[in-house]
Each structure stands twice: as C-alpha cells, then as structure tokens.
Amino acid sequence: MVKKILIVEGNTREENSEFTNVGINTHTESLIESINFYKKELNIDIANPSSDTNLKSSIDELEKYDGLIWGGSSLNIYDNTEEIRRQIDFMRECQKKIKKILAICWGLQVAVTVAGGEVKKSIRGAHRGIAHKIKINKDGLNHRIYQKKQNKFNSPAFNFDEVVKIPSNAVLLSSNNLNKVMALNFKTSVSDIWGIQYHPEITYEKMVSLIHFRKERLLNKGAFKDQDEIDTHVKMIEKEIKNTEKVSRMRELENWISYLNEN
User: Looking at residue 70, what DSSP letter applies?
Assistant: First the structure.
C-alpha cells in the first residue's frame, strides 16, 4: 500500500517566489527531490499554513496521512506574527491526528513550541549553511533516526534560533557547540515526533546559494562582518562538499521513510 504524507512548507509564498525568481528551489522542492532519491511511490500533498486560504479543509483531512514532514523557514517563532500563529495552530492539529512526524529545523521549533517547549535566539551564534561536529549521545545511538549514522558528523544547517526548553517527555538525541538541542524525540497523545535542528535533505550547494541570496540580510543581522568573511565561509563549505557523501548526509531522512513504511 502506498503511504500518503503531508509536507508542510514553512516559508510564506512571497519568500518562495523570491527563491524561484533567482533559481533556488523552495524547501519543499528540495525535500521532495531528496525523498524521491529513496521512495518515488509516496503519495505527497503540500500545505502552506502561513499562506493557504483553505486550512479548515486541510485540517479536516489530516487523519488520512500516514506521516508528516515539516520543513525549514526563515521565520523566527518569537516574532508571533499572524503567519507564525497560523503555523502553530496547524501544527497543534497535526499533533492530534498524524502518528509519524519528521520536524526539520523550523519544523522542530514549531513542534516543540506546541508541545510546551521554548525557542529563543541562539546565544552562541548561528549555523550559517553548515553545522559542525554534531555529536550523537547515548540515547541517540539507540534511536533509529541515527541508524548507520556516524557518531559525530557535519550537516547542512541554517538557523539563528535554538530550542532552550524541551517538552517534558522529550529525549535529547544529539548536540553540538552552538545548539544543545540538535535532535530530539517526543510523543504527544497521537504523534511520534522526530525533530532535528539541521537539514539533511538540503545540499551544501543550495546553502551556498542561500548565503549569496541573503547576503545583505546576513550582513545587516551581523551574521558576517563583511564580504571577505562571506567569501572565506563559502570556500569552507565548498571544501565540505568534496568530503560529503549523499547517502550519509541524508541518513536521517532515509531512516524516517523506513519507519514510515512500517505498518
């Protein structure tokens, strides 16, 4: 039986139009491309709770999905805008009705917020296209999200915020020097949620494109001090590309799809 999943786009349609205009895949497009590397026959629907006008009908149909993947976004959850509140409300409904959820980066932050956790601006700095030295802890080594994954690894990542309070029943699975919470697992009454604060489904090449695309924004935020620092950072990521093997990079996605396909 073909499994049916819902992909939730974390960015607004306006942000995605800007991506498309400069030739960058949206996060949903990147995710579908990565899923298709493993499982072409999945039945996939897409929702954008920040921009969709038919959310009520989408909520009414949530129980038909075998799984949910909630992707990344450039939003900051503490800004509490209407677009963000719509996503929080939609995630709350998903946690009532969908059994298997993979929450990626922004998706993790929304899932944690709904479940009683807290997200704030990272005090140790941002992941700017790459997260270094993510270390899997003992619980992580026993969790299937990290099956066949190296104990310490680098990954594509882009986040300025971090989970500072995890839900009461959550289990921490991995950390690095910038973010204590790089992966965790927790359950609601219905959902088993695997959350990660990085992007195994996105290539480093896209991360480099995002740095160039967001250059002015990143400079204004103080993520980089000048163009020379950007150039040096990009060269470092480009070196990482040569040392990264696709299957290893995407192992978490592969493991979740395997979990999804169980009865």
Answer: E
pTM, two decimals, is: 0.96
Cα three-residue angle 88-124-206, rounded to 5 degrees: 65
Contacts of 230 (CB under 8 A, 6+ apart): 211, 215, 218, 219, 224
| Encoded tokens for 76 | 């900051």
| 67 CB-near residues (< 8 Å, 6+ apart) | 3, 5, 6, 98, 99, 100, 101, 102, 256, 260
Report the number of secondary-structure helices (H) and strands (E) in the chain.
11, 13
Which domains does the chain carry?
4-260 (3.40.50.880)
Exposed / middle / buried, residue 165 (Cβ in 10 Å: 0-12, 13-18, 19+): middle
Quick one: how far is CA 21 from the chain centroid? 23
Q: What are φ and ψ of residue 113, in 5° steps? A: -60, -45
Question: Is residue 163 a contact partner of residue 197, using CB atoms and an 8 Å limit?
Answer: yes
DSSP 91-140: HHHHHHH-SEEEEETHHHHHHHHHTT-EEEE-SS--EES-EEEEEE-HHH
- Count of CB atoms situated within 10 Å of the CB of 201: 26
Question: What would the pLDDT profile of 136-195 be if each residue is shown by its tens digit?
Answer: 999 999 999 999 999 999 999 999 999 999 999 999 999 999 999 999 999 998 999 999
- What confidence category does residue 65 fall into, taking pLDDT thresholds of 50, 70 and 90? very high
Q: What share of the chain is helix, strand, coil (3-state, %, to 5)?
A: 45, 20, 35
Percentage above 90 pLDDT, the chain:
93
